[in-house]
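Researcher: I'd like a structural prediction for the single chain below. Treat it as a standalone chain; there are no partners to consider.
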Amino acid sequence: MKSIKILAIILVTTLTSCTEKQRSRSFGGQFEVKLPKGQKLIEATWKGKDLWYLTRQRREGEPIERYLFKEESSFGVMEGSVIFKEL
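Model: Treating it as a single chain, here is the predicted structure.
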């Protein structure tokens, strides 16, 4: 019983000390990135625990879009996702 309490404390500490991005990447979940107004998403990738994304200036007449960057893990557990919203 004592080991369960210790494990619970470690888990809660880990989850509360991480940023939303780190929790999504490491433990699954979802978070949202709002791109600066007028920017178009080109590509996104993880480098270690950091999320990198490439944008360009949106051209006249291009629609504002929403993108889902999703992980598909080998076992289908703790999969994270990022939603990119163009403004």
